Automatic annotation (TrEMBL):
PROSITE patterns cross-referenced by the UniProt entry: CBS
Species classification: Eukaryota, Fungi, Dikarya, Basidiomycota, Agaricomycotina
Keyword Repeat found: yes
Protein name: CBS domain-containing protein
Gene Ontology molecular function: AMP binding; protein kinase binding; protein kinase regulator activity
GO annotation, cellular component aspect: cytoplasm; nucleotide-activated protein kinase complex; nucleus
Residues that span the membrane, as ranges: none
Keyword terms: CBS domain, Repeat
Amino acid sequence: MDTTRSPTASPRHRLSTRRRAGSQAHHHPAHDLHEHGVAAIRNFLRCHTCYDAFPVSFRLIVLDTKLTVKKALQCFLLNGVVSAPLWNSQTSSFAGMLTVLDIIHLIQYYYRTTDFERAATEVETFRLESLRAIERHLGVAPPPLTQEHPSNSLFDAAKLIIQTHARRLPLLDSDSETGQQVVISVLTQYRLLKFISINCHKEIQQLHLSLKRLRIGTYVMSPSPDPSNPYFPLATAKMDTSVFDIVHIFSERSISAVPIIDEDGVVLNMYETVDVITLVRLGAYQNLDLKIREALTQRSSDFPGVVICTASDSLGTLLQLIKKRRVHRLVVVEGEEEEKRGGKKGRLLGIITLSDVLRYIVGHADISEPRMKPSTASTEAPSSTPIS
């Protein structure tokens, strides 16, 4: 599962996978052991607060809504982040999150409504507070204003993340003297799952059932109900697809990555929203007409590669991988078992996101309505200074 692929390596070498002993267990003792492990992890989350998941040292960046998009992108670049809480300095209140997807929506809007020169000029002065109007124009759902109190349990936070389809959850407190809101931190899906992987070693060793048996992830339907997309419901692209065509997919589906496949469906690479932002940071708005094969040459040299697995890999193996490295999604490909049944090794089979993993771990708990306001409990906390 921890096989990664370099953008320059040959597809055959990049798609080597390893089968895990135990991931195909179907007998009742293994199932019972798995269920016991999952239940123990859920109990662990109930017994720990969001504060507990904070790293020993971390940096919090909060952006003022009066900031221009260009300066916000520069801030992302300088600090190595892809999202940040927004702060309305006029009302002294939390104003949601700025994410890469917001920038994708903005790019989509300009490509639909104006020319390159005007887009380049307007982006110089476009303020973050105007992004919601762009989303309304495109007809895409605005990001939720969900927030959580850092002293609430990790299980409640996980439920809220799943219910709102968010990838990150702002943690807010109130100043004990002024009563004003204070942004304390942001809990991401990755941080939450890594906290589990570090602290639930014994429980994770019990999770031997396969990812597909557990129905974790989205898999290609066969036969496809959409003749134009043999990999339905997944979105895919080819090396000759234009960057903007993928931008449209990102914006329309609110997703952050698309697998790049060859004519046989073998996964060659992955194109992500952060790759688009790299082009925009360079001021290369017109470069969105580039083909993917050309755009990949401008990707950051520290790109970690595509993390792949097979459907027979186990949930336990996946969580162990998260402990070792920063993983945001896994591409499921056909392995030796599928090849024996006439498949093709390395062909796209599905995608597993951290949302899928967290949703399974939370289970069928009551997540009918998100809480849109923080808990009334208040503890003294350091203030956050917006960047303006």
